[in-house]
Design goal:
Length: 247
C-alpha cells in the first residue's frame, strides 16, 4: 500500500489536472488496481485537492517560469556608516531582474520615509530609463516601507506587485543572494565614514557585479560583457576596484 500511496501522491502532484479516474487508469497501466474511493482518501490524507481545484492553482515555480523575462524583485539591506553624530544606519534599496540578474541600486538613505519611496517608485517606472519600465511583476516582501501608496504607484504604471507571505525569504531567493554577495564580498570588509564612501562602494560593486563577475544562473556568463574580450589577441588584464578588494 505504501508504494501505491507514493504513486498516487506523485501522479497528482506532477499532473494537477488528473482526476481520480485518470490516476486510476495510470495505476492500472503499471499493474495496480485501485478504486476511486481509495485514491480520493489518499489525496485527502495528504492535503491534496481534487483535480478541478488543484488544476486552477499555479505553483511559485510555474509562475516564475511563465513570466520569467518580465519579473523583477526588490528589497532593502542596511549598512552602518560613521557620521559626525556616531553610527548611522543607511538603507540601500535595490531591484534585480530575475532573467538577467541585472541589478539597480535604486536609492540609499538613512530615512526611507514614504515621500522618498514615492520618488524612488517614479524613478523606477520612468518610461524612458526606469529599470521597471518593461516589467510586469515586482516581487516584494511585507516590509511596511512598501506602503499602499507605493504599491498603487507601481500598479498605475502597469506593474503588478506580488507580495510574499510573512517570513518567506526563500521565495525572494534572487534578491537574498545578491544581498549575501555584496555584503560578503564588499560591504562587510569595509568601514564607512560618511554617505559618500558607501555610495562609492555600492557603485563600484555594481560595476564589478555586472562586468567582471560570472554568474552561474545565466550559464556562467557576464551580465555586461566587454566586446573587446571576444578578441583572443587582446591583452589580458586583471580589473581591480576598491584598492584591489574586487578583482
Amino acid at each position: 500500500m505504501e508504494i501505491i500511496t507514493e504513486l498516487v501522491v506523485r501522479m497528482a502532484s506532477e499532473n494537477p489536472r488528473w482526476g481520480y479516474t485518470r490516476i486510476q487508469g495510470a495505476l492500472q497501466n503499471v499493474g495496480h488496481r485501485v478504486g476511486r474511493t481509495t485514491i480520493s482518501n489518499i489525496l485527502e490524507n495528504h492535503g491534496i485537492d481534487p483535480a478541478p481545484e488543484r488544476g486552477k492553482r499555479t505553483t511559485w515555480g510555474q509562475f516564475l517560469e511563465a513570466h520569467w523575462s518580465v519579473i523583477a524583485a526588490a528589497d532593502f539591506f542596511t549598512v552602518e556608516v560613521w557620521a559626525p553624530r556616531g553610527l548611522v544606519t543607511f538603507y540601500v534599496f535595490f531591484v534585480i531582474e530575475l532573467a538577467t540578474r541585472r541589478i539597480d541600486i535604486a536609492g540609499i538613505t538613512p530615512s526611507p520615509a514614504e515621500p522618498w519611496m514615492m520618488q524612488i517608485g517614479r524613478n523606477l517606472t520612468d518610461p524612458l530609463d526606469g529599470s521597471l519600465a518593461e516589467k510586469r511583476f515586482l516581487i516584494l516582501d511585507r516590509d511596511s516601507k512598501f506602503s499602499t501608496a507605493f504599491r498603487n504607484l507601481l500598479n498605475d504604471a502597469g506593474i503588478e506587485v506580488v507580495r510574499l507571505p510573512y517570513r518567506s525569504p526563500n521565495l525572494n531567493a534572487y534578491a537574498e543572494r545578491f544581498v549575501r554577495s555584496i555584503k560578503d564580498e564588499c560591504l562587510n570588509r569595509m568601514i564607512f565614514f560618511g554617505e559618500r564612501s558607501l555610495r562609492k562602494a555600492t557603485r563600484e560593486y555594481a560595476a564589478h557585479y555586472h562586468r567582471e563577475q560570472n554568474h552561474q544562473g545565466i550559464e556562467n556568463r557576464l551580465i555586461e560583457p566587454d566586446d573587446r574580450a571576444e578578441s583572443a589577441s587582446s591583452a589580458t588584464e586583471c580589473a581591480q576596484r576598491l584598492g584591489g578588494m574586487l578583482r
